[in-house]
């Protein structure tokens, strides 16, 4: 695993190296407001990783894992959720087996025992990202560029606001699929930060692509909150975005 660190206020990504082994050895990882850590979790496991991850899952999580039809999907689920438990326990200084999760109205998971730690998980292809913060709602999304065969004009009409739509169809055609997926990731990150998921109208989440694609972060108001939106540089094959609440959960 490797982590990026972003301050919710300024949003400069620092890029901190890390590994699962380091996390296991660390007695406790410090996380101070308004910092946000984003961990990268490769989902192609070794036998050892897989066995270790499955051993961390709760009975409910194992039931869910067993419902996937394909072995690869079962393995990815186990690695993502095993690492989520491992990371949260390292931040909290608790046994990973003792963590109890509950979900909000639209399914956003949170920790029952430690509500001040906010987190969000996303997976696509062979990569998962886990974002963590203290007292700030976070949403993260990753999209694999390996996704093929989606109808960009039709989707763009449904989910983009007029400014984004105009921008997308002004750029070179060969860059369009990747740019669309970035915009999608930005919108999904905001909707996931708000806990709304796909129930949020993506066209109502208005980004300024000129800002996003140059400075890589911007502030916006959408889905009932104020968010700082940050494009994540994930390297070849993936695009991603992180949204963090500008206000602390304690303030109003
Ligand atoms: C959240 C949602 C957008 C994720 O879509 P996706 O692109 O397939 O998945 P991602 O990999 O980015 O994120 C999935 C993770 O987000 C988290 N998540 C689930 N619901 C969430 C929500 N409403 N908001 C934020 N995060 C959510 C979970 O950790 C999930 O991981 P898991 O499926 O392995 O448990 C989609 O599942 C959704 O819209 N759900 C809400 C639907 C709803 O209203 N359900 C009500 C019944 S619970």
What's a concise summary of this model?
The protein has 252 residues and is α+β, with helices and mostly antiparallel strands. Helix content is 35%, strand content 26%. The chain has 2 domains: 2-135, 4'-phosphopantetheinyl transferase domain (Ribosomal Protein L22, Chain A); 142-245, 4'-phosphopantetheinyl transferase domain (Ribosomal Protein L22, Chain A), CATH 3.90.470.
Describe the structure.
With 252 residues, this protein is an alpha+beta fold. The chain has two domains: 2-135, Alpha-Beta Complex (Ribosomal Protein L22, Chain A); 142-245, Ribosomal Protein L22, Chain A, CATH 3.90.470.20. It is built from eight helices and ten strands. The protein has helices spanning 20-25, 47-56, 59-66, 71-92, 152-159, 162-168, 173-193, 209-215; strands spanning 2-7, 35-42, 101-103, 109-111, 117-124, 127-134, 138-144, 217-222, 225-232, 238-245. Helix 2 crosses helix 4 (71-92) and helix 3 runs antiparallel to helix 4. The two termini are 35 Å apart. The protein binds coenzyme A. Residues 80, 106-109, 120-123, 139, 141, 188, 192, 195, 197-199 line the site of coenzyme A.
